[in-house]
């Protein structure tokens, strides 16, 4: 669930700060007995410096995972990678999967610029100088689809009306490129898009008869779908041709239903479309009166297509798990929220009015920057300021963090974050050490239950130091997480000798005027 919910960004779905595993060179004794023979483990080729060239010469397409044995992300990928390897091996020997222990094969890791684990790169036709970065899903089906598109034609050639009609009706959604010259730059750009969007079937047509049957006179990409308007055309600009990134974006946007329902099956589509705002209608589908609210919601959606994705969330079904992120319970339905995906800022109408006119006006006001975000805040514990580590919430953060007489060191954490749990004892010890200090305050804030207007937390744990004095300064702590290093940082005024601090200025909440000078 966490992996699929981009709405949960810093609240539930953000990676822990150490989530990206950076490659570290480990000294290993060179094994003089490795040969260039190709060995397999669970249908995955085991590659090293001595047999890498042999593998490239044997297989036209070779997708290689560079991994570290201790990397949790790699361990979670391993079963899906092996399953995909078996499926591809059974289909053909042209496309295979391999793996390299990058901690042992440092030369290979350096040659291919591996800086994090796992890193997947595709090698084509024995060329080791320009591998292609993997851009598909990290599951067996996604890996296989991605490789199939690169093993064969990325689009099916449609040569007559019967094959075209059969192709278009074969699935709920298909893409067909009509080009008068399949060797043109526009057609080649279309093939490139087809290679990336592996979840959509792509066809291509050149014969004049098909242009006439589908009412076309010039090169056009057509999206055929068995929902909403049924067909969307994207004409090729005669002067500028076909832009790969723009066509990719348009197809992703228009492949979605105008109003999506949030389910396990649709979550990848919803977040994969990368639409910058999501407008959410929370309702209980078992209440017939609430179901009728979808009509006004849908009527408002068309105006904002591509800018705002409209999504229905069933509070009594799959959507129940996201309610805490919005500070909602099932009893709050029906209600509306708009989320800005860039920073997970949430916006709430002054009152829930479900007409298409009211919804459209609210969405436009948010896009125009005329609505303040709705910030969550827990209630402060009664003893929040008597503990060695002060417990901050959204509504008390300003008065504590920007107290000009105090130097405040704050840990932003998530209750489920393992890294946060590991450093909890050290943070408590730090609080004990400075509990009687006249101008140093140690504090913490649960960033999944509290939001701040001008500070966005994107990883856990995050530590920020707010020095005393005017100016609303904030220093991000990015060093070792132990008591002694924390203390050295505090005693040195918010910096470590070997690390210049990253200092930023935090704007005051709206309505409070500029920071004092």
From TrEMBL:
Signal peptide interval: none
Stretch list, region Disordered: 492-517
Gene3D superfamilies (UniProt xref): Glutaredoxin
EC number: 5.3.4.1
SUPFAM superfamilies for the chain: Thioredoxin-like
Any one Gene Ontology molecular-function term assigned to this protein's record: protein disulfide isomerase activity
Name this protein carries in UniProt: protein disulfide-isomerase
UniProt source species: Nyctiprogne leucopyga
């Amino acid at each position: 669930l966490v992996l699929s919910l981009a709405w949960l960004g810093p609240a539930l779905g953000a990676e822990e700060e150490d989530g990206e595993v950076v490659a570290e060179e480990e000294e290993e004794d060179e094994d003089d007995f490795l040969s260039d023979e190709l060995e397999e483990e669970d249908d995955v080729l085991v590659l090293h410096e001595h047999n890498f060239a042999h593998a490239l010469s044997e297989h036209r397409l070779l997708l290689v995972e560079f991994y570290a044995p201790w990397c949790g992300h790699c361990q979670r990928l391993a079963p899906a990678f092996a399953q995909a390897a078996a499926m591809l091996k059974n289909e053909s020997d042209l496309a295979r999967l391999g793996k390299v222990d990058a901690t042992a094969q440092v030369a290979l890791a350096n040659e291919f610029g591996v800086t994090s684990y796992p890193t997947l790169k595709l090698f084509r036709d024995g060329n080791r100088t320009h591998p292609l970065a993997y851009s598909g899903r990290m599951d067996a089906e996604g890996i296989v689809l991605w490789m199939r598109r690169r093993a064969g034609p990325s689009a099916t050639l449609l040569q007559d009306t019967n094959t075209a009609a059969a192709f278009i009706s074969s699935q709920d959604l298909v893409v067909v490129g009509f080009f008068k010259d399949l060797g043109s730059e526009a057609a080649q750009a279309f093939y490139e898009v087809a290679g990336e969007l592996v979840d959509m079937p792509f066809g291509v047509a050149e014969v004049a008869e098909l242009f006439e049957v589908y009412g076309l006179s010039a090169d056009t990409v057509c999206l055929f779908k068995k929902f909403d308007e049924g067909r969307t055309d994207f004409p090729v600009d005669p002067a500028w041709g076909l832009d790969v990134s723009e066509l990719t974006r348009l197809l992703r946007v228009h492949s979605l239903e105008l109003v999506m329902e949030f389910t396990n099956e649709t979550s990848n589509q919803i977040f994969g479309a990368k639409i910058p705002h999501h407008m959410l209608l929370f309702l209980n589908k078992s209440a017939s009166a609430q179901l009728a609210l979808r009509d006004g919601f849908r009527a408002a959606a068309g105006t904002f297509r591509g800018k705002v994705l409209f999504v229905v969330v069933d509070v009594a079904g799959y959507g129940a798990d996201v309610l805490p992120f919005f500070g909602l319970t099932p009893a709050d339905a029906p209600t509306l929220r708009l989320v800005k995906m860039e920073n997970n800022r949430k916006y709430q109408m002054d009152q829930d009015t479900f007409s298409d006119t009211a919804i459209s006006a609210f969405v436009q006001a948010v896009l125009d920057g005329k609505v303040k975000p709705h910030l969550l805040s827990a209630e402060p514990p009664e003893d929040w300021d008597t503990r060695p580590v002060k417990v901050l919430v959204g509504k008390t953060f300003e008065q504590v963090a920007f107290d000009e007489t105090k130097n405040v060191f704050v840990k932003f954490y998530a209750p489920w974050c393992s890294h946060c749990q590991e450093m909890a004892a050290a943070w408590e010890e730090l609080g004990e050490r400075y509990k009687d200090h006249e101008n140093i305050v140690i504090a913490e804030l649960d960033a999944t239950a509290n939001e701040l207007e001008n500070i966005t937390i994107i990883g856990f744990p995050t530590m920020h130091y707010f020095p005393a004095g005017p100016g609303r300064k904030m220093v991000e702590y990015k060093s070792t997480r132990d008591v002694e290093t924390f203390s050295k940082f505090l005693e040195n005024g918010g910096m470590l000798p070997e690390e210049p601090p990253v200092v930023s200025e935090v704007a005051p909440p709206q309505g409070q005027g500029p920071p004092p000078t």
